[in-house]
Amino acid sequence: MHFSSSVSKRIILIYVLAIQLLLINSKLSLNTTNEYLNHTCLVSQGKYKPGSEYDKLFKNIMKMFYKNSIRGYDFYGDPTFTAILQCRGDSYGPKCRDCFVTALAALRRRCPWYKGKIIWYDQCLLSMDSKYSVGQIDYDNNFCMSNAKKVEGDQIAFLKAWNNLIHDLTELATTGDNYTLYSVGEKRYEGDTLYGMVQCTQDLTPKACRECVLYNKFHFQDCVHDIRGARAVGRSCTFRLEFYPFIAKQVRNI
Ligand SMILES: *[C@@H]1O[C@H](CO)[C@@H](O)[C@H](O)[C@H]1NC(C)=O
Ligand SMILES: *[C@@H]1O[C@H](CO)[C@@H](O)[C@H](O)[C@H]1NC(C)=O
Ligand SMILES: *[C@@H]1O[C@H](CO)[C@@H](O)[C@H](O)[C@H]1NC(C)=O
């Protein structure tokens, strides 16, 4: 992540906190928010020139993504270029297309001419890479966002509850004939309801998806474990837990 100064970091933090407050206070926002979360320019992969072969390929693939964004995802990979679009499981059709268009424009602005770049929104992720990386777990480009408020009471019980929820959701997302690499669900926790979501990009196998979630669960345990809501977001997989419903159609009682 390459924010230009700590001031912009703080502004983004305030922005994120404000959005979370809005989410908590208003159910309306379920339909309308698609907040920007983060981006990264993969500087080490270098830049490409306007009109180059890379540029032409990039533009063609983005045209294809625009078309296919209606179904909620797309990916492309060859030895010199990989691109992945993944919308959240409940964002397909025009919602996914809107998120794709927003993400592409923002990447152009934030990482101009960089071959490698990733941007995350609440409802989609768009990533480019100057090598073949389809089906591979990205262990490097991950981050965690948490609400400031800590859980009161039994930390161990809470840790167990969210561990179970993420585990069950991961199973749900990766097993069966019609696995979707996406699942949402909820569990009761001490008179409260804990809502969760797990998703992997569609280029992963179920096994890789499980591995990715497991890795992030471990990697970000300090960020998640005693917090009233958090999400681990990565290029290959993401999970989120809140004490309020953040997806319109939450599955009941898993
Ligand atoms: C979200 O949108 C759907 C239809 O687009 C509508 O039926 C529903 O009431 C909306 N929910 C909220 C919380 O605004
Ligand atoms: C944004 O993502 C990068 C990883 O790509 C991470 O290092 C950074 O901490 C993230 N920034 C925020 C504000 O979460
Ligand atoms: C999986 O999908 C197939 C074909 O679409 C369908 O016939 C079958 O009933 C589905 N299985 C489950 C468990 O939903």
TrEMBL record:
Keyword Secreted assigned: yes
Annotated ranges, domain Gnk2-homologous: 36-133, 139-246
Signal peptide region: 1-29
Superkingdom of the organism of origin: Eukaryota
Recorded GO CC terms: extracellular region
Location of the protein in the cell: Secreted
Family per record: Belongs to the cysteine-rich repeat secretory protein family.
Protein name, per record: Gnk2-homologous domain-containing protein
Source lineage: Eukaryota, Viridiplantae, Streptophyta, Embryophyta, Tracheophyta
